[in-house]
Structures are given as structure tokens and as C-alpha cells.
Amino acid sequence: MIDDRLKSGDFTERDEPYRLFAEWLEDAGQSEPNDPNAVALATVDADGMPNVRMVLLKGFDERGFVFYTNFESAKGREILGARKAAMCFHWKSLRRQVRVRGPVEQVSDEEADAYYASRPRGSRIGAWASKQSRPLESRFALEKAVAEYTARYAIGAIPRPDHWSGFRILPQTIEFWHDRPFRLHDRVVFSRSADGGWQTKRLYP
Ligand SMILES: Cc1cc2nc3c(=O)[nH]c(=O)nc-3n(C[C@H](O)[C@H](O)[C@H](O)COP(=O)(O)O)c2cc1C
After folding, report:
1. Count of structural domains within the chain
2. Per residue in 113-141, pLDDT tens?
3. Distance of CA 175 to the CA centre of its chain
4. What CATH number corresponds to the domain at position 13?
5. Which of 54, 67, 88, 107 to probe ligand 1 with, by most ligand atoms within 8 A of CB?
6. Domain for residue 138, yes or no?
7. Domain housing 8
8. What is the pLDDT of residues 8-37, one digit of tens each?
9. How far apart are CA 182 and CA 202, in angstroms?
């Protein structure tokens, strides 16, 4: 059941959805077998055709939800075109779902550099070697690219590629869903109000 704060209907604090999200993500960290931060990311292409795939949430605060990717990938081009996206977390072990929708901004270079530097060396090389979402003639071609970049950056720091960075979804809505018996689930949606605060309402399941 969604916790008592949600039941009380007292949802006016600006950061309230993020505190609840943090609690749910922490719970997922205890109960999910792996990747509690895995999330389905939905985008739309230039023809209005939807697209969806998993990414890993790498940060969130009162500004929004951050993930990293190749900006020349399908999702990168779709987001740079439409400037909006949606996310859906589903934690099976908790029977909980969180949905996020909103415009998207690019994270700062400093933020992207800091996260890139924290990644394992192999992942930093991979960011150079993978032309994500473009045709790959063979597995060997990818391994060759990895070997070439490994040799190129054998000594010293591996710079972050210009095409690799983070996006932040700036939520207009964040919806919390929790399974209840007989499909009479709890649904509570937080919507950004004009003053930058949050308005909250329940939805029929
Ligand atoms: C659990 C999981 C986590 C993933 N995390 C990321 C991620 O954080 N960033 C990313 O670019 N791709 C990630 N991927 C790969 C994407 O799902 C996708 O295959 C890839 O980004 C290409 O998508 P696109 O062609 O729609 O751009 C992940 C896949 C899985 C299954």
C-alpha cells in the first residue's frame, strides 16, 4: 500500500515526490536481484513513432532523472529532436511502478565528465568504440575498434567523447502505483504547478 503520507493527501512540499522515489528505489535495492535502477525509457522519432528501451538511472534530485548514453544513438537523436521523453520503473519484487514524463535537458559537461570518470576503464573505452544503434558488420569489427581505442588511450586519462553524455528528464508528472488486491491499485500522480511546486491527485486504477 502506498504509505501514510500519500494516503493523508498532504502533498504540497516541493521535493515530496523525490523523497518517496528515493524510498522506493532504496526498497528496490534490497529486493531486486539486480539493476534496481533499470528503467524503460520511451522516446518518439521525427515521424511520431514511439520507441522504448531500458537504461540505467544514474542520478536524480529535485531537478529530475538522469541517464547516460550515446547522443548519436537512436534514443539520442530522438531526444535531441523531440526534447521530451518518459520513463517507467517496474519493480516486480515490490509490485510497484513509477512513471515520469517531461521535457529533457542535457546535463552539464562537468556532470558528464564526473560520471564518465567514475566508470570502469573498459566502459570508457566502449563509449569510444561503439557507434551505438548503427549497423555493425561483425562482432570482430567491434572488438577491433575496442583494441584500437585501448591502444590509443593506453597512457593517461581517457577523455569523454563529445557524443557521450547525459540527459535529464525534468518531470512534469511523476506517478506512483502500488499493487492492491483485486486490481484496486493505488495510483497517485504529482504534477508540476505553475509556481514550481507540486499538485497531487489520485487516479482510478
Ligand atoms: C538493464 C539495461 C540497462 C541499460 N542501460 C543503458 C544505459 O544506461 N545507456 C544506454 O545507452 N543503453 C543502455 N542499455 C542498452 C539499451 O537498452 C539499448 O539497447 C541501447 O541504448 C540502444 O538503444 P537505441 O538504439 O534505442 O538508442 C541498457 C540495457 C539494459 C537491458
Report:
1. 1
2. 999 999 999 999 999 999 999 999 999 99
3. 15
4. 2.30.110.10
5. 54
6. no
7. 2-117+164-202
8. 555 545 558 999 999 999 999 999 999 999
9. 18
